[in-house]
Amino acid sequence: MIALDPWAWSALALAAVTIGISKTALPGGSILAIALFAAVLPARTSTAAMLLLLMVGDVFALIAYRRHAHWPTLLRLAPAVIAGLLVGFAFLALAGDGIVRRAIGVILLLMIAVTLWRRWRQSRADAAAPPSGGIVLAGTYGTLGGFTTMVANAGGPVMSMYFLATRTPVQVFLGTSAWFFAIINAIKVPFLAGLGLFETPVLLMDAALAPLVVAGALLGLWVARKMNQRVFDRIVIVLTIVGAVYLLF
Where on the tree of life does the source sit, at the highest rank (predicted)? Predict the structure, then answer.
């Protein structure tokens, strides 16, 4: 087990609960967990440790929302996401932690600005319209999503901006996100294993934190039933801005 101070374990415990909630209620909310893990652990170690806990949360997200996924959206994103994963793997292997964090922060802030601009232009459109979006939009967000999820498990906010930009309803948003990250996180495992990041102390720490992810996921299911579309959208945007500013500075 990794030797940590009590305050550090408290931070990781909060992060684990946050991961569970983000998987079943607030996609993009895991950015808080990213910040907490990065504050306690070395950056590369935190990426590996978080990935395994995110996969625990993926199980509950799929159980709850697997039937609501919009598969044409996933297929549209797939080529760009794969390209982003490969670029992210190369970047993770070569770049320093500071450069990685600042690059992601800049990307997120740009995506927020573009999304809000698009939503302002489309303000007369039906907020409950089915997911849509052209190849260019899917390619841009997909590549950035693959890149950021590989280097820092920070793909959630990027993909949240894509789903908000395409005016995706809450249930479809959650279902499509659930399948997207379940697949992507499984793909990432051999890449990070190849870098030697899944050491025994990391696995033991994750085993201790996994029950808190489960508790957070169950809490998130309750929260999701109480939330309307407008509140959901605003919370996702605010969490993304906070996470982007943290990563930038």
Answer: Bacteria
Q: Structure tokens of 28?
A: 């993009």
**Cα angle for residues 201, 202, 205 (degrees, 5° grid):** 85
Place of tokens 């590996």: 48
Grouping H, G, I as helix, E, B as strand and the rest as coil, residue 1 is coil
Q: DSSP assignment, residue 40?
A: H
- List, in order, residues 6 or more apart from 81 with CB less than 8 Å away: 142, 143, 145, 146, 184
In this prediction the pTM is 0.76
- CA 96 to CA 98: how far, in whole Å? 6
Confidence grade of residue 130 (pLDDT, cut at 50, 70, 90): very low
> 38-69: buried (b, 16+ CB within 10 Å) or exposed (e) per residue?
bebbebbbbbbbbbbbbbbbbebbbebbeebb
229 has pLDDT over 60: no
- Could you give the dihedral angle defined by the CA atoms of residues 95, 112, 46 and 10, in that order, rounded to the nearest 10 degrees? 150
Closest to 24 measured CA to CA, from 242, 183, 213, 243? 213
Structural Rg of the chain based on CA atoms: 17
d(CA 13, CA 16): 5
Asked if residue 206 lies in contact with residue 49, where contact means CB atoms within 8 angstroms, the answer is yes
The helix (H) or strand (E) run that includes residue 16 is helix 6-24
SS (H, E, C) 129-195: CCCCCCHHHHHHHHHHHHHHHHHHCCHHHHHHHHHHHCCCCHHHHHHHHHHHHHHHHHHHHHHHHHC
Check the CA dihedral 148-153-158-162 and report its sign: positive
